[in-house]
């Protein structure tokens, strides 16, 4: 019996090529998108799962007691103490990270053969917390020697090829040189802790930062014992921190390692967690996958029920010769499942072929091998059967209910119920598509608003060139001087902080140190040209004076927000108490108040800020009339001063745009998925238009005989579809408005939702629908009426 079902199903699929193509291709496209999204989501949900017993590892972050935010970094000296004093902690480590240029020191090689890798500065407890697999070298007491360096497999191969690297000397920029003590296994791509080099922090030139109880400078982790309660451990960490002098401004709290990737969007100074995502993105992608699969399944239901009349005589004959309704339903369900299996096979093959090319678009390295395991292949087969059964259930129910007497007499007509269902499904399909289009428009509008709003200064026509090192102040002065001599350069300034990044903070008191807590303020270190280069308005007082020792040692500028928070009437004669990382409090004179500027992360609100005079090494901001030509001239000067260093530059606007790279990348994905949803819906609309046009062929012939024009017939055939799409807009608009308005609440600065976007999304959907249906409408309207009247 099953063999007969299968044979008949395959014959029907092959005999209805257009219908079969639309159904299989539409389902395959929907399943393809679902697989891609599943791979993406699976990668996010398994971040850091490669670490041994990851559920026992926690990152220690710092809750700001005076503000509503959390810092991803903590104080350095906390970790050796808690590892010793808290018995529930198995190991505790602190990490600093640097981008370092590395080359072999055992043989003479040019600097051009060096490689750039991320170097972790840590301690020997790193291996106790993260337990990386040591493939060769010292494994008993790693990092016990301050000069010991551990390389990943990839880094070792890049430096030494097939040679044994153990014991060989390395030269590492910014950090004391060392030797290869061991090789560790490469990290997977879905981990927050990406590095090529591990070395002890004892070799750092800034060891004061590791020992400061006041400054939050390092990322810290603990591994607790299996039977330990996280809350108990956290309470003990807080107690140890307070006992040993950690600033009262912050409270250490424990964040599970497995929460880091998807629950850290609000954390500041989260440099190690560069590739973090958010559960809202995961949920959005899952919703999109379900919606696209729904659109594809609705196509199948729509087309199958619409074409039911084509198979009415076949059903009538089968019933006459004794086929039961159950047997007929089984027959049509098997056909539906076959469509689904064919579609799944095509989708899986397409994913395997296209995945290498999708990596850049998705900005993620996805592993397809998981879908080649028996468990997942069985899951895919089960999913195919389930999709086929769900999609084919209603058409099978309708077709198997036909009465043989009516169908054999040719009196069968599809009922009103089927027509209503088809209209409902088309409306739902386009409601989904319009919602996706409108959502993307609002996301792009918000990102454009964030980038183009008033930042409090002029960020156009500025080139940023990193020009700092440990001991090159004189060269930096020379570099700035020669750049200012270029005819197209109007001004140049040095600043220590990267524009568009989270700024460092400091605790300050206004006038006198009163109480336990001061105010946490952002800090920027600049030279005397900074205000002029960026066209920042000074509201009161003066700018820094060039070469002024007093300005460098004991003066600051403050922004409007800090001034308002101080409660002062004037800045004149006022000072702040600055709490440094080390040593005693410092009194600093306030020499001026500047307009609020947004120099740091543009997604965050403007905080109180102080500006220090620091005319030394840093980023050089260069305002020029011709960016492209000036950059070429700057590169020539740079290479003359530092022939062994790589030139790097970017525009000020690029620095801020980079903040929104992830958001724009995600918006690009949504645009693509929305386009696919529209395309799949149009496939169904194309097939449905074919069916309806065929049903009304005789009517069209009669209308033409009676004098109807081609344009009037096209209008009659397309107006119903246009009406359905307009109804879809009325459903999609309020739902999307509610969802996107809620999304906008996550931003400190947000755009207003422009009504034009609603009209535009509706017009786009309507235009696409009319163009899709018009193909059949125009062809039918141009058909010779004699042929139309003879059509059966």
Task: Please characterize this protein's 3D structure.
The protein is α+β, with helices and mostly antiparallel strands and 792 residues long. It has three domains: 2-42 and 280-449 and 661-790, no CATH class; 54-260, no CATH class; 462-659, no CATH class. It is 48% helix and 17% strand. The strands form three sheets. A six-stranded mixed barrel has the order 3-4-9-6-8-7. The chain has a six-stranded mixed β-barrel with strand order 14-15-20-17-19-18. Strands 13-21-12-22 form a four-stranded antiparallel β-sheet. A hairpin with a 5-residue loop joins β1 and β2 (70-71). α2 (17-45) packs across α9 (325-362), α7 runs antiparallel to α12 (416-452) and α13 (473-484) runs antiparallel to α17 (627-641). The longest helix is centred in the middle third of the chain and has 38 residues, at 325-362.
Explain the layout of strands and helices.
Layout: H1 2-15, H2 17-45, E1 57-64, E2 70-71, H3 78-85, E3 89-104, E4 115-122, H4 126-130, E5 134-137, E6 148-152, H5 153-160, E7 169-172, E8 178-184, E9 197-200, E10 219-224, H6 230-243, E11 250-256, H7 279-306, H8 312-320, H9 325-362, H10 374-399, H11 404-408, H12 416-452, E12 462-466, H13 473-484, E13 489-495, E14 505-510, E15 519-526, H14 530-533, E16 538-541, H15 549-554, E17 555-559, H16 560-566, E18 575-579, E19 586-594, E20 609-613, E21 619-624, H17 627-641, E22 650-651, H18 652-657, H19 661-695, H20 697-705, H21 710-744, H22 755-781, H23 785-790
Parallel strand pairs: 4-9, 6-8, 15-20, 17-19
Antiparallel strand pairs: 1-2, 1-10, 1-11, 3-4, 3-7, 3-10, 5-8, 6-9, 7-8, 12-21, 12-22, 13-21, 14-15, 14-18, 16-19, 17-20, 18-19
